[in-house]
Amino acid sequence: MKKRWDKLMLMGMVLSFCVGCDQTTKRVAEHTLKGSPMQSMLGDTIRLQYAENTGAFLGMGAGFPQELKFWVFFLLPILMLGGMVLFGLLSRKISSVQLWMLMLVVGGGLGNLVDRVFLSGRVTDFLNIGVGTLRTAIFNVADIAIMLGSFGLILSSVWQNTPIEEELEEAWESPPPLREEELQTPPHNPAHPSEG
Predict the structure, then answer these.
(1) pLDDT given at position 134
(2) Prediction pTM value
(3) Could you tell me which residues come within 8 angstroms of residue 119 by beta carbon, excluding any fewer than 6 positions away?
(4) How far apart are CA 182 and CA 82, in angstroms?
């Protein structure tokens, strides 16, 4: 994937999808689950329960002081997400699959960042999965996108660095071959002045 316009189209599509799905499900959860009892589905494997998270991924760092939260949960994510977008846009060796996975991580981060900006530092969570007492923390669609993108980047980095792909990359970056007539045309040598 080399054309920057194609990259921008793919990045915009994945980011719009991630942030749109995340914000839609959060607002639905806010209107249907907030103030209501927990809902259990599929034999209590999935629980729908409204929660507001003041920490990071899966509630980590919720007890940080407010000043530290500003740096860790606002400024640092903005810098990291911006760096990921620039890397995806400028990298010459990133594949379309890897760009998809990278934008899933960025989209998930943006989804939670939107919450922090408009909900005074809180993030809406509503999903919980597990069996019996072995359960996850409460999370959201943005967290799912971050996890899927992270695992996808790890797997694609292992599987896609094949000799065939490297040859394709080199072929793309190499200059176009000369035409047949250019190869057959002898170089023009200027005539040397005759000696007097």
Answers:
(1) 92
(2) 0.75
(3) 52
(4) 46
Active site residues: 125, 143
Instruction: Return the domain boundaries, the chain.
Output: 4-160
Question: Counting Cβ atoms within 10 Å, is residue 123 exposed (0-12), middle (13-18) or buried (19+)?
Answer: buried
Tell me which amino acid residue 125 is: D
Q: How far apart are CA 126 and CA 33, in angstroms?
A: 8
Residue 133 has pLDDT above 70, yes or no: yes
CA distances from 69 to 126, 141, 186 (A): 22, 22, 70
Structure tokens at 178: 């000369």
Q: How far is CA 72 from CA 102, 155, 175, in A?
A: 21, 28, 45
pLDDT at residue number 173: 53
Per-residue pLDDT tens over the stretch 148-182 = 999 999 998 887 654 434 544 544 454 555 555 55
In angstroms, what is the C-alpha Rg of the chain?
A: 26
In this structure, what DSSP letter does residue 12 have? Answer: H
d(CA 117, CA 121): 6
Q: In whole angstroms, what is the distance from residue 189 CA to residue 115 CA?
A: 71
CA–CA distance, 122 with 51 (Å, rounded to integer): 10
- In whole angstroms, what is the distance from residue 109 CA to residue 81 CA? 7
The token pair that represents 168 in the structure block: 């394709």
